[in-house]
Design a protein that fits this description.
Layout lengths: L1 E9 L4 H17 L3 E7 L9 H6 L6 E5 L4 H5 L8 H7 L2 H10 L9 E11 L6 H6 L4 E5 L3 H16 L13 E2 L8 E2 L5 H4 L3 H13 L4 E4 L7 H6 L4 E4 L16 H12 L6 E5 L8 H14 L2 E5 L1 E2 L10 E2 L11 H4 L4 E4 L4 H5 L4 E6 L3 H9 L4 E3 L6 H11 L3 E3 L20 H12 L6 H17 L4 H17 L1
Parallel strand pairs: 1-2, 1-4, 2-3, 4-5, 5-8, 8-9, 10-11, 10-15, 11-14, 15-16, 16-17
Antiparallel strand pairs: 6-7, 12-13
Keywords: Glycosyltransferase, Transferase
Organism: Anisodus acutangulus
GO molecular function: UDP-glucosyltransferase activity
């Protein structure tokens, strides 16, 4: 029997983390037949768009999916503390992971090989699982689902907090510009993600996770050298493996539209001139209240640009749910808006984002700046107007606009925490939104970001091909994994 090296993947339970991890796993297996992967799946009590994706997955001889979800009663017990729920939920799966490894011989049914455990690949939020890997005497790698720049920012603030004992809450609402290793430009404190300036239990625990990063054998980052050379050069320990952009180009498994709805969107785009449409979409958690929706609508009318707008209904206050589709857009849009923009604009619910960004009619993207969305946009050469919402998105917006020159700003210090902990978010006025859209969609020589986005599309494609930077980086990781069992 042939011996193969087995990696155990433990992705975070959110859709963005799980989907990226599965795409990384496929990439590794496509590259080298000496490897097998088991993906252990944790499902949250609330379905954040994960279930339909999971149902679309199928195990193969070398890639298997294993449900290790704890029972509903155990999971529900953590919901009383929303602040620490996510990390407590992951922590409670440790015993399940241990049982899986302990009870698995890693011989695949019906196959002509056995595999030997070569290591764990842990989501950035699952680093506490390193204890389990150590128990089985195998190394751990991190799959960092965000940018190399955010990784540099995490290490910087972990050092400030843990080594220099600096109270970083002093930067909250500060006008100070900071020098941060990994960034070429001074970094305005007002663009810092909340988790770097809050003094809460969850923030403390997050930086405990970051401390664990240094114990890993390597960190896989979904980026590429040509996109973030400065940040990657600043990261030295542990070994960094940038082999992105890894993007899920097949949305069929986790879409929330019927086929006819998606076809209707594509048909509308087919009727628009090339690069004429601005696409507005704010991620799986993105939604606005009625007042903000009206400001966006006014801006779109005034901008005189064709638009495709993914407009979602916010979840009920205090509920951990995803936004939903409106039954009738008229209840939230300005009176007569649909009629006045008929032919030049289309309002939709959930958006098949990759399908839309890949369409030749799309010329710009108003985005929340989630890292997966940024990579998808750059893969198709689409520039971005940055309107971040939560998590590390403010930093992603700064990276995109100020460091890389691949986007324009709508409002980079906008925060929407969804729970009202910081009060309601500011209203971004129609004039500000319109200005961002006009800059984004400007034609001719003055639109440098369009040129840079097209160039980055070519670079991203080249990085993944044989001879490219990401191709080489993936090869180095695979050899390291193989050496673990040699």
């Amino acid at each position: 029997m042939t011996l193969k090296a087995e990696l155990v993947f433990i992705p975070g339970p959110g859709a963005g983390h799980l989907i990226s991890a599965v795409e990384i796993a496929k990439l590794i297996l496509d590259r080298d037949e000496r490897l097998c992967i088991s993906v252990l799946i944790m499902k949250l009590p609330m379905d954040f768009g994960v279930q339909s994706y999971i149902e679309s997955l199928s195990s193969t001889t070398r890639l298997q999916f294993v449900d290790i979800t704890v029972d509903d009663k155990t999971a529900a017990g953590f919901l009383s503390n929303k602040e620490t729920f996510f990390m407590d939920f992951i922590q409670c799966h440790k015993a399940k992971v241990k049982d899986f490894v302990h009870n698995t011989s890693f011989s695949r049914s019906g196959s002509k090989f056995n595999s030997q455990l070569a290591g764990f690949v842990l989501d950035m939020f699952c680093t506490s699982m390193i204890d389990v890997a150590n128990e089985f005497s195998v190394p751990s790698y991190i799959f960092f689902t965000s940018s190399a720049s955010f990784l540099a920012l995490c290490f910087h603030f972990e050092s400030l907090k843990k080594e220099h004992h600096i109270d970083t809450s002093k930067y909250k609402d500060s006008d100070e510009d900071l020098t941060i290793l990994g960034f070429k430009n001074p970094y305005p404190a007002k663009f810092l993600p909340r988790l770097t300036t809050d003094q809460t239990v969850v923030v403390t625990r997050f930086f405990d996770l970051v401390t664990h990063f240094k114990e890993m054998k390597g960190i896989i980052v979904n980026t590429f050298t040509e996109l973030e050379p400065f940040a990657l050069q600043s990261l030295s320990v542990p070994q960094i493996y940038p082999f992105g952009p890894v993007v899920n180009f097949n949305e069929g498994g986790h879409g929330r539209n019927s086929q006819s709805e998606t076809e209707s969107i594509i048909k509308w785009l087919d009727d628009q001139p090339e690069s004429s449409v601005v696409f507005l979409c704010f991620g799986s958690m993105g939604s606005f209240d009625t007042e903000q929706v009206k400001e966006i609508a006014i801006a779109l009318e005034r901008s005189d640009h064709r638009f495709l707008w993914s407009l979602r209904r916010p979840p009920p206050k205090g509920k951990m749910e995803l936004p939903s589709n409106y039954e009738n857009f008229q209840q939230v849009l300005p009176e007569g808006f649909i009629e006045r923009t008929n032919g030049v604009g289309k309002v939709i619910g959930w958006a098949p984002q990759v399908t839309i960004l890949s369409h030749p009619a799309v010329g710009g993207f108003v985005s929340h700046c989630g890292w997966n969305s940024i990579l998808e946009s750059l893969c198709f050469g689409i520039p971005i107007a940055a309107w971040p919402q939560y998590a590390e998105q403010q930093m992603n917006a700064f990276l995109l606009v100020k460091e890389l020159g691949l986007g324009v700003e709508i409002r980079m210090d906008y925060f929407n925490d969804f729970e009202g902990k910081y009060g309601p978010p500011d209203i971004v006025g129609a004039k500000e939104i319109e200005s961002g859209i006009r800059q984004l969609m400007a034609n001719g020589d003055k639109n440098e970001i369009k040129k840079k986005a097209k160039e980055m599309k070519e670079k991203s494609s080249a990085a993944m091909k044989e001879g490219g930077s990401s191709y080489a980086s993936l090869g180095l990781l695979i050899e390291d994994v193989i050496n673990n069992v040699s």
